[in-house]
Model the fold of this input.
Amino acid sequence: MAFPVVGGGANYTGNFIPEIWASKLIVNFYDATVLAAISNTDYEGEITAMGDKVFIRTTPQITVRDYQKGMQLQVERPDSPKLTLNIDQGDYFAAVEDDVDRVQSDVNLMDAWTRDASEQMKLKIDTKVLTGVITGIASTNTGATAGRISQNIDLGATGAALQITKTNVIDAIIDAGTVLDEANCPEGDRWMIIPAWMAGLIKKSDLKDAALTGDSVSIARNGRLGMIDRFTLYVSHNLNRVSDGGNTCFSVLAGHKMGLTFASQMTNMESLRAESTFGSIVRGLQVYGYKVVKGEALARLYVRA
Done:
């Protein structure tokens, strides 16, 4: 029999006791979080609280000049401005576990709730960052006339999103790689974040033939997208999407870790007794900030199905 609960209150004992759930909690299926894989986190150790500012030193560009024997050398003093990473965002969670639930339940509700809260935070932060970085991408690495040199590569633009099919999906990925090549982005450690439907098109493309990829097993068999044109591919449901011309359009992001910096700290994590009930409260505060430090190391495909 469940313990009596005040009207409007949560009766977790009735939900989680062994007689009802046979010693199991429903497993939460979380959307994949990709932020840790696409950004550098070199400055996380410098955060103490929300409102902190982390100053990032940048490497100046050195001038290389022609030389003739006997000429007087021009000497420069390399300098570049510091960038400021503002730790100006924060998210928290707070939950209470009644003592009755803790005593009568055979599972640790606090641990389960804390794990869930941390995953939900990662999803929320991923969504914020993947949308926020768009404005920091170099203008030559996005749009219908992308390419610092060629200026004729169509990566899709507002009102004219690039329609992706199983026939052209690989071409679109390669075009994004070419744009980064022209921006002198390092070839190693490149990444690309795509929506699930685009991953499905890749599996239906010519790459499903293992004989063409050189893999021992087709991606249609194992589902592993791996790497295409130097991009390690990640699937995310957190990419920015908008309605444009009656279509749902997605901002597919690509780049190198040097393009984006992210710093986060769980500055407060505590458990305390509740004042108005017999129970314990667990709560946490995570502060963070992000900044595009090299817009030329990022690119955007604006696409639709």
Residues 138-260+294-304 form one domain. Residues 1-5, 11-32, 210-214 have pLDDT under 50 and may be disordered.
